[in-house]
Amino acid sequence: MKKKITFTDLVDKIAEETGASKHLVHDLLKETVNLTREGLDRDGYVNLLGLGRFHLKWHKARPGRNPRTGEKIEIHAHSSVNFKAEAKLRNYINRKYSSLHSEVLEGEIEPAKTEPTDVSIQPEKKPSQPVTETPPSIQKKEKKRFAKWLWLIIPLLVILLVYLFWPSPKPSETDIQEPVVSEKVEEVVPVLPEEAEQPVEKPVVEEVKPGIQGGLHIIKPGENLWTISQDFYNQADLWPNIFRVNLNKIMNPDFLSVGDEVQIPSLQGKPGDLTQEDIKEIAEGFIEVYLFYKELNKEKAIYYLWVAKKWNANEVIDNYKDKIDKADLESVDNIEGFPHIK
Amino acid sequence: MTNSEIIKSLSLRLGQSQAETKQLLKSSTKIIREILDKDIDVTIPGLGIFSSVLKKKRKSFDPYHRRFILLPPKRIIRFRPGSSIKNELGNKKFLK
Fold first, then answer.
1. A7-97 adopts what CATH topology?
2. B43–A4 C-beta distance less than 8 A
3. Was domain A191-341 assigned CATH 3.10.350.10?
4. How many of the other CB atoms lie within 10 Å of CB of B62?
5. B77 in contact with A at a CB cutoff of 8 Å?
6. What are the sequence ranges of the domains in chain A?
7. Contacts of A17 in chain B (CB under 8 A)
8. ipTM of the complex in this document
9. How far is residue B63's CA from residue B68's CA, in Å, rounded to a whole number?
10. Using the beta-carbon criterion (under 8 Å), do B44 and A7 form an inter-chain contact?
């Protein structure tokens, strides 16, 4: 039977050795216990000076058996109070054994690969296994090494694959984006003249051909009228046609706000095969753009008027006669083309 | 709860300075340590029983190097919580 020390004996002993009053030591121990309980209740752990660490551990409910009757019962979920002695205390009580270390048992043989943890089977397999004993460990190590390399190689392969397959979608993106960037700054200027010349050549168009359906479009980041026109009409410089319909919504054709809804007018013909009505509408759009830039006193305004005139849409220009500057109307005839194209 | 928190509230409850409380707590745990070293169980009411147990040397398996080893004997401190603390905290759930 192990010896025990009772609480009162402990108090007496501590009081004797420290010189403190029994009353104080008693209180100290009591309060330490209380604090430990409070701390466990609050944090789930308590570090107690000189002893170690108490902590609560949660155990899930699990099936069990009554050891006396063998009856199946369920062990309820509960938490247990666990204690781990601090290193100082462990080392102190083990100072006698501190010189001892674990030794490798040379004569012993490893268990089979399939049941590495089963120690009981190991001695039986002694005679048959000595030769095969070392290979498994080496194999395993090599496997481990290989696994390490795999972790390195797999991401590299993935990156390579991504890199190889990336370029194919990219060019199409950049093709679309490049013009967008340049157009944003300089507006429609560069391509307009070609556009303007086309209708002059083919003013008469068969009306049988199916047109392009318009619709509502919500502006996404990175879009401008130029790209929207390219998407819908397959001809970027028809953008004034969109601007014409959305005069109330688009305050400035150079700056669209993302998320706005834009009405896209439908065309009866197709770019290159436009009907007379289409041409009128588009010319109207160019005149609206002219008016807008004129208000801002931009030099390029007159070129839009010039394009409108080139579309052979004199009727439309007559409708806008009051708004168009007369000096501009006269000077338009002298224009030979867009300035930087000359 | 950490050591410093315990010492702070202990000094408040005992009416002693923190340094004195720490000194007293240290020396009393030292005495408990000596008692445990003499292989005597320490019962602290409200907390539980501390006892030192001798573990004999034993054979064990080292899974990393895949070999058998002989572990030397050693002593461990075993703590058995009292019934009152078990009942009080038995339903308390703390997950990491």
1. HU Protein; Chain A (4.10.520)
2. yes
3. yes
4. 13
5. yes
6. 7-97, 191-341
7. 27, 31
8. 0.89
9. 9
10. yes
